[in-house]
Every structure is written in structure tokens, then in C-alpha cells.
Amino acid sequence: MLVVEDHKALANRIAEGLRDQGMAVDVAFDGAAAMEATGLARYDVVVLDRDLPRVHGDAVCASLVAGPSPARILMLTAAAAVEDRVDGLNLGADDYLAKPFAFAELTARVRALARRSPATPPVVSVGDVAVDRARRRASRGGRPLALTRKEFGVLETLISADGAVVSAEDLLESVWDAHADPFSNTVSVTLARLRRKLGDPPVIETVIGSGYRLRAP
Predict the structure, then answer these.
(1) Alpha-carbon distance 69 to 58, whole Å?
(2) d(C-alpha 84, C-alpha 86), whole Å
(3) CB of 25 within 8 A of CB of 46?
(4) What is the pLDDT of residues 38-59, one digit of tens each?
(5) For the CA atoms of the chain, what is the radius of gyration?
(6) pTM > 0.85
(7) Which pLDDT belongs to residue 90?
(8) Is residue 184 over pLDDT 80?
(9) What residues form DSSP beta bridges with 74?
(10) What one-character-per-residue DSSP string does 69-128 give?
(11) What is the average per-residue pLDDT within 66-70?
């Protein structure tokens, strides 16, 4: 997810709050940085302030809608009049939330937008391992798994890859965020804990030199 907000303190508060909810969040402080970020990474949701410096939020929205980005757009702005909301939605935004806002509502709207992607059904499974994205739950053979947010994020990413190999760098990018240390062992430590919780027979395979994949035993 990408948060685009020129008020740095607010942007960082939003990002930290969403990270506390188990989401991987990057931040951009102006429209030009947002355009660059969305050109380099694939985001499910972009929380987009409308009144941005360098490139206006309306232009960022229009560019995302016209381009290949699959991101759902939540406009977040102080302009709350009906005509402002209509303008934002007509630009292609998927949702519109006025400032000030309740953080619980922002979180709920972000999750709702993430679930609306046709490429990501709410429940996916490989063998007897199932992940329910909507409820943030996972199970194996019908047995609920008590996973941390990062463990759930890794499992969700692996199961969504549909048998493809996912590199440690891709896991770091999708489950953590741009501030994560690429030289740390956080991915391998999280994977080791996840494997223990999934139990036997093993379903996470290490592909030496490439990464990891999830497959039915």
C-alpha cells in the first residue's frame, strides 16, 4: 500500500497505524514521488491526498486510472463538499474520505478496497492450507493457525503466488515496507516460525538461490 500525503507528520501517523494492522506501507510526500513509486512497485491500494505539491492529486489519480496500475484509490482530503466528492469519484477514485477522519474507518475502507480486486478472492487455499484475507485468518486441515501479522503476510503472499517462487526480496517488499533492512534475517526468521506453526508435512519449499514457494504436500 502507498500513502500519499504532503503533511509529513500525518502521513507517518497513518502509515504507522496501518502497519500496526499488519499492512506493508510505503509513503510519498508529493505527487511526483507518488508517480515514481507507483511506477516502480505494484500497490493494491493508494491512499491519496488530493491537494499535493509538485503534481496535484487529481493528476496522480488520473494517471493511475489510465495506466496499468491495479491499485484501488482512496482519496483522503479536507475538501468534503458533495461536489468535491463527486469530482474525486469522477476522476476514477474508488472511495473518498474527508479529513478529519476516524482511523478505524480509514482502516476498514482500505481493507474493503483491497478485497475488491478481482484477482484476489477473499479465501485462497493450497492443499489443506487456507487463508481468509477478509477475516485475516489462516488454517491448516481446518485447524486455526495463531499467526503474527508478519507470519500471516508471508503466508498470504506465498499462497497468492499460486506455486510460483517468491524471492526473499519480494517478501520483504510486500510484507514489510520500504524502510525494512534488506540485509537483515527477518524474512528467514519469520519463515522458520511460520513453518513450525504449519507443521508436517512441510508445505513451504526453499528453492536454493531463488526463494520460496508454497505447494501441497
Answers:
(1) 16
(2) 5
(3) no
(4) 888 788 899 999 889 999 999 9
(5) 18
(6) no
(7) 80
(8) no
(9) 47, 95
(10) ---EEEEEES--SHHHHHHHHHTT-SEEEESS--HHHHHHHHHHHHHT-TTS-SEEEETT
(11) 80
Is residue 28's pLDDT more than 80?
yes
- Secondary structure of residue 205 in the 3-state scheme: strand
Q: What is the pLDDT of residues 137-146, one digit of tens each?
A: 899 999 999 9
Q: Is the CB of residue 95 less than 8 Å from the CB of residue 144?
A: no
Checking if the pLDDT of 118 tops 90, the result is no
Q: Under a CB-based contact definition with an 8 Å cutoff, are residues 48 and 61 in contact?
A: yes
* C-alpha span between 95 and 199 (Å, rounded): 40
DSSP class of 202: P
Q: Is the dihedral of CA 9, 15, 16, 18 positive or negative?
A: positive
Give DSSP secondary structure letters for 29-56.
Answer: SSHHHHHHHHHHS--SEEEEESS-SSS-
Pairing of strands 211-214, 143-144: unpaired
Residue recorded with cell 493511475: 64
What grid cell was written down for 80? 468534503
Q: In this structure, are strands 26-28 and 95-98 parallel, antiparallel, or unpaired?
A: unpaired
Q: For residue 92, which phi and psi values (nearest 5 degrees)? A: 120, 0
Which residue type, as a one-letter code, is found at position 114? Answer: A
Per the DSSP assignment, residues forming a β-bridge with 76 are 49, 97
Locate 152 and state its grid cell: 500471516
